[in-house]
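Protein modeling request. Please complete all fields; requests missing the sequence field cannot be processed.
Requester role: graduate student
Desired output: 3D structure, token encoding
Chains: 1
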Amino acid sequence: MRSDEHHGNGNGSPISPGSTDERGTTTHGKGATSVTGILDERIANLRDAIREIDDALAGRKQLNVRFIEQIEREADEAKHFLSTLNPPWTTGFYPQVEFLRLSLHKSLTSRAKERRAEELKYWENRVNLAKERRTFVDEYKALLAARRRLRGP
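Delivered output (153 residues):
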């Protein structure tokens, strides 16, 4: 037999109709083996993709928590500095102090805006990843059903 004619099961023996390959799959000729092999590979790829999405969701959640904590620390720091400044009516008008007060207020406003932006970005990422995961899970289930039908009872 020429090497280009060999259609074995991967361990050197040719696959005949009704034989069993190394995965325990009963085959019905060359076509069934290649189809189930392709299905098995696609199922494994989808399983890996779903796991990667789950990891990405968990990682994004951790990232969100760290970002929010950092934003809150910065806001707390600005609030602390702002609280140390005397009100202008007790100390008189000092342009430098008023500039600092306005800067701290801007910083607080900016931190609130950053927090909202981060929450929105986190929500968008979760929705997109969940949608992609749902698509992969649906395809995964369909391929599992197709493989069961091909392998038979």
